[in-house]
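Renewal narrative, Specific Aim 1. Our central claim is that a sequence can be written position by position from structural information alone. The example that follows is taken directly from our test logs and has not been curated for this report. It begins with the structure tokens describing the chain, in the order in which they were read.
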């Protein structure tokens, strides 16, 4: 029987390695930028064509390479970063495996120009599909200029599985920022098809964040600094009121390397407990400085997942540091930070304070059989109008008005139930609808309460209005272009560079929906018109919601855009809580709600209607 085990050719081995290292254009950008940083560059340019599918060019002014080093850089496992296994536990550089360049060259056409400062001439290499086609001496600036063309040209299946241009560009921007936010002593630029996306000069960390995310972020940042023997933690967290519903501005760095760490993210979430809602995500930019021997960066091909020794200790330090930062800015109850976190306990000085005795206000003249002594104002005509008018009486607990004649108010309810027992579509058999012409009570400016056959129905008035508006907007957006309402004083929407480019991409769709946006300075738009029913005070909020959804959605979302806009508009335009409603308004709201296709839940799945069953009430009085 013949032998079946064979040694793979280098070209095939490189393509297999490329499957882990080079997954998309963003992977190439990451590897080449990290190489430029390791080369000591002070200026790094990233130039793209067709979001990297046609060209990825990275130009740096680093130390460059000799002719031999340039050739060796494309050999597998050739690296200048490590010489022994022990070096893996003392890494200070970004790239070290020696697989990036050979992997890239196995799935693309690569042109390299490089020169060391002490040499007058440099080296040019042209490699395609792992094969060196050309090597010669050239005149080139100090540093390295590398072009990756026609990515995945020899693996059509891999190219076919690339996402849309919008998605691939977002991935590239993510990788670009992970490097740029770490090395603020280096100037970076990024452009695509000749359009500059970023131009970041050398700066401090705070200014780099402002240059990346826009000047509005400056007022949101809260500095954090925590120095211990185990770790030094510096950076910024954002004010709780600016927490978002989606991810996008959460960054951990360790020893100038970006990392993902769900356990440490949980530490920050816990530090914000009580300050933000459970589904909100705070923004943060946290930089760890730690002894390299305490971490292992060699556990994942992309080196974004890092293992820490004694992770629980890091968790506690991080959580305490964030809490301290929030406390110093009076966002949490003030703490004494001069004690360096020590907890003093002196049993002999323990004082037992007197228990707090709550005060109860009451009316000593109250008589339950005397309406006037109870402080309830009752019009005499209420007793005379009969059950017909009383059914439409608007009752609000906020104004302390109650129906005078409860027996008259509910008279006939049982007969109406028997005469008309229809159940509207979408409500379960166990959740009966409000009987026709039922009385409505507004409770706490939030709920509308009405009796039903099985008990009491509670309706969240804002969510009910959201559902009504959502279905109206959805129908309108699917059938016709909306004419926006103009403003005499346009508001300015200031954005980060990538958010500005995203709005540019979907501006035509936004105009179809009633927005009118015009460029107004660098990375900003003037809002000249908004969809009907949307106040200008909510226009920015709605647009930022759309940007957040757009950034966190894979593929082309144009088909989903109308639905997301309808939801955002409905949330912004719905009546606010604590808005008083009269009897007719409550009746109209209920009529419109039950006319909706789906009336039990909002478009994002929140409960609108709840039935308090009579059987649940009876045990209260046993």
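The sequence written for that structure reads:
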């Amino acid at each position: 029987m013949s032998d079946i085990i064979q040694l793979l050719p280098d070209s095939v081995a490189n393509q297999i390695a490329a499957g882990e290292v080079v997954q998309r254009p963003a992977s190439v950008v990451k590897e080449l930028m990290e190489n430029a940083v390791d080369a000591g560059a002070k200026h790094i340019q990233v130039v793209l064509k067709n979001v990297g599918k046609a060209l990825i060019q990275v130009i740096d002014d680093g130390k460059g390479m000799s002719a031999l080093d340039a050739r060796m850089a494309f050999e597998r496992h050739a690296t200048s970063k490590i010489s022994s296994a022990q070096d893996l536990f003392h890494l200070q550089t970004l790239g070290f495996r020696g697989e990036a360049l050979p992997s890239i060259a196995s799935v693309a056409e690569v042109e390299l120009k490089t020169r060391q400062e002490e040499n007058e001439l440099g080296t040019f290499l042209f490699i395609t599909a792992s094969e060196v086609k050309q090597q010669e001496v050239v005149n080139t600036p100090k540093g390295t200029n590398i072009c990756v063309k026609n990515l995945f040209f020899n693996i059509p299946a891999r190219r076919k599985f690339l996402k849309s241009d919008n998605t691939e560009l977002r991935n590239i921007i993510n990788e670009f920022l992970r490097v740029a936010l770490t090395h603020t002593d280096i100037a970076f630029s990024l452009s695509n098809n000749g359009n500059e996306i970023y131009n970041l000069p050398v700066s401090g960390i705070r200014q780099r964040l402002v240059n990346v995310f826009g000047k509005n972020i400056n007022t949101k940042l809260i500095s954090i600094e925590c120095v211990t023997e185990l770790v030094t933690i510096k950076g910024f967290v954002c004010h709780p009121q600016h927490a978002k519903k989606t991810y996008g501005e959460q960054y951990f760095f360790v020893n100038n390397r970006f990392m993902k760490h769900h356990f440490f993210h949980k530490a920050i979430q816990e530090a914000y407990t009580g300050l933000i809602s459970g589904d909100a995500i705070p923004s943060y930019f946290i930089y760890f400085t730690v002894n390299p021997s305490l971490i292992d960066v060699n556990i994942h091909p992309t080196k974004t997942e890092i293992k820490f020794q004694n992770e629980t200790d890091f968790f506690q330090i991080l959580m305490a540091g964030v809490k301290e930062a929030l406390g110093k800015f009076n966002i949490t109850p003030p703490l004494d930070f001069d004690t360096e976190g020590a907890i003093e306990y002196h049993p002999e000085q323990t004082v037992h304070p007197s228990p707090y005795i709550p005060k109860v206000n009451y009316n000593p003249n109250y008589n339950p059989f005397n309406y006037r002594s109870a402080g309830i104002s009752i019009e005499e005509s209420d007793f005379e109008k009969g059950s017909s008018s009383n059914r439409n009486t608007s009752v609000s607990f906020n104004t302390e008005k109650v129906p005078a004649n409860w027996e008259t108010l509910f008279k006939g309810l049982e007969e109406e139930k028997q005469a008309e027992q229809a159940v509207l579509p979408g409500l379960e058999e166990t959740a009966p609808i409000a009987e026709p012409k039922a009385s409505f009570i507004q409770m706490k400016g939030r709920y509308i309460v009405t009796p039903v056959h099985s008990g009491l129905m509670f309706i969240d008035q804002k969510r009910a209005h959201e559902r009504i508006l959502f279905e109206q907007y959805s129908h309108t957006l699917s059938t016709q272009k909306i004419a926006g309402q103009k403003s005499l004083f346009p508001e300015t929407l200031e954005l980060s560079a990538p958010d500005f480019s995203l709005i540019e991409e979907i501006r035509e769709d936004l105009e179809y929906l009633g927005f009118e946006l015009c460029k107004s300075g660098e990375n900003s738009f003037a809002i000249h018109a908004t969809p009907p029913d949307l106040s200008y005070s909510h226009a920015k909020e709605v647009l930022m919601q759309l940007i957040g959804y757009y950034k966190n959605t894979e593929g082309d979302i144009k088909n989903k855009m109308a639905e997301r806009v309808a939801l955002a508009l409905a949330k912004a335009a719905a009546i606010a809580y604590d808005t008083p409603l009269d009897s007719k308004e409550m009746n109209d709201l209920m009529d419109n709600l039950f006319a909706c296709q789906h009336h039990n839940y909002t478009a994002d799945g929140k409960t609108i209607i709840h039935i308090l069953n009579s059987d649940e009430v009876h045990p209260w009085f046993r």
